[in-house]
Structure prediction request, 210 residues.
Amino acid sequence: MEFAVPVVGFALGWPIEWLIQRFPLGEGTPPSVRRRWLMAGLMAGLFAALTLQIGIEPQLAPALLLTALIVPASVIDINHRIIPNLINYPGAVLVFVVACIAQPDRIAEFAISGILCFLFLGTAWLISPRGMGLGDVKMALMIGLGLGKYAFTALFAAFMLSTLLSGYLMLTVGTRARKIGFPFGPFLAVGAVVGLLFGPDISPYLLGGR
Prediction:
């Protein structure tokens, strides 16, 4: 059974490429055979890693679903600096429902985490709209609804990685780095994967439990 999950992930490379091509609405993204195979390989690897870490358990289902949503959202964000509502809104609902079915004892935790993530990044958007998009805020909602308390690990990893990139740009191009923008969605996606894979191990240290 474990071997079938990465195969499913590999097969998702084709529908993910189709989804990427649909955005922006009315304009679209040119097709790419290289990107399609890259998505297939990436999804197979992520699905394999999640299966090894979580096992064939109920909580694997929302983890796989969330991963299948944040990957195309990140690619679209890289290409066009948008994270479509057609991914964020249905994705948030689906992830929350599947997570609650998988772990009904954590329903309140998932809901509260989603709201807190939304409010946290929403505040960042209000403070600096140029540095944080509303798509990022909605994506954080989806991540919080899927990860529960481990969303803190995801956001921590996302902000740490983006800070490292900002620091690197400051060192290499100096003050011009302030004018260089980059999408935050991919950092949220990487952070979500970190939370899915290592949240239970990392979060006690981040929250001062060890």
User: Anything to note?
Assistant: The mean pLDDT is 92.
